[in-house]
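agent> step 3/5: call structure_predict on target 'Sodium-coupled monocarboxylate transporter 1-like' (Cyprinus carpio).
agent> reason: downstream docking stage needs a structural representation; sequence fetched in step 2, passing through unchanged.
tool.input:
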Amino acid sequence: AKRASNAASFSVWDYVVFTLMLVISAGIGVYYAFSGRGQSSSADFLVGGRSMTAVPVALSLSASFMSAITVLGTPVEVYQYGAVFILICFAYVLMVAVSSEIFLPIFYRLGITSTYEYLEMRYSKVIRLFGTVLFIIQTVLYTGLVIYAPALALNQVTGVDLWGAVMSTGVVCTLYCTLGGLKAVVWTDVFQVGIMFAGLLAVIIQSVLLQGGISTIISDSAQGGRLNIWDFDPNPLRRHTFWSITVGGTFLWTSVYGINQAQVQRYISCKSMFHAKMALYINLVCLWAISICSVFCGLCLYSFYKNCDPWTARKVSALDQLMPYLVLDILSEYPGVPGLFVAAAYSGTLSTVSSSVNALAAVTIADLIRPYLSLSEKQLSWASKGMSLFYGAVCIGMAGVASLMGGMLQAAISIVGVVGGPLLGLFSLGILFPCANAKGGLAGLISGLALSLWVCIGAQIYPPRPENSRPLALVTHGCNFSGSANWTANTEENLERPFLADNWYSLSYLYFGPLGTVTVITVGLVVSILSGGRQTKVQSGLTILKEDLTFYKAYNILKAKVSIFLNARIYTNIHSHHFYPFQLLALKGFRWCRKV
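tool.output (status=ok):
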């Protein structure tokens, strides 16, 4: 394959494709602003009038947290550390099971706009405010990273203007969130998830054609040690193993899909509990497909650059730029196709930012404005639009702060884990343990947050040693260039490292979330029991009920069908004079079980 020579290889047609994607996204917002009966109430604007169906909500759930970080960050993760990250698919299965069985029924039944309303019902107003403020900080930080990271990577490789890209995506997002509300966000997500798949598939198909088949790519990856999937080392300091990805990933993604406002807002916009649960299960298939595509893109990346790593050879200035570099390398002769990939990366950005802006507006209205100001529905609807506009501007501003953070994927997961873990613990404590009280909840939340922040900040100051992260070899002996291009020596090696640096701060970043969750539940239970939590009277519907569980419903349906079958058989046998005493005994036993 020929090598991309310079930034000029981003053609007019590429810009046309990219601009078209932005225009269609904005157009959907304008359509929902002016179509039908309009967004007359804040419920219409924030939760789509609770009338959405499963499929668009499922695609929207997938798009919301499958951002440009997935399109650009995951392939680089595989290129540098191997395909072990594909095990996140197991975590998705566990996450969907937990979210649909434990969290979704409670939030849907309560019919709340903000998940943090639950915290006041279950604990106290103080804990609700604490949870709301934590969510706002986490989401604004994460969204800043999501806007800035792809803009920087694409700017370096394709020459797309950095702040032009940041501003255009931010403004388009804010426009359709402010005009169209949740319905516009969901339908633009559906469009954008299609663009993301198209961009990834374009890279995969062209790579397979140029390399002479999938078998060549798999063979190259195996020889380079990239197919290191089954690593069962239980050491929690190891960055990626089977355990860190499945256990840590389950906690991480449950904090996103189980309790995060951006996602919960989508379930409760569904017209029935059945549609809400179906949305989660359809979303699971989408998550698998996107993860498999992005991991395979990483293997394609390695297959192309196994003998000449562009990063070590200084052809790109950061690892996050490798995917755009590959796209220009193999697809620049097809006008508009590199533009499609850039549109895919930015579709990821738009879908995540729009979800975040809509969720931030919902939380601010429900938790910080409605309880303290008596506003009419029309005023609340306008306030919702004003909040969307405000948070859009804040997130664009936060893109500047994001430039100070490290690798895309790890930085994003660290932000989600540090705040999401303790919040997941707080909700789990309230839903699963009727004895938990406000004192326990607050003590647990503060402890979990402090512990997560401590280890995360420590890991930023003292990055883990290579023996824990284990980056795989990247070589340059096949490159045509002069001058040395070796790995830069790690300056941390010469610094004095305290005992905690190699034991506590080296904890895998995927365990930041579980650490916070387990700490909140443990401390919360102990403090609740010591402060008289056993006498707590919990309002019905705030803790998990056996009627909410799909298995319990399936068991009841099966029991009813068996009962009908037995009754029919016995009735037939009595009338045909072929009646057996053991059938009567079975029927009596079954009826006794039903009473029990």
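agent> step 4/5: record observation. Residues 162-211 form the longest helix (50 residues).
agent> proceeding.
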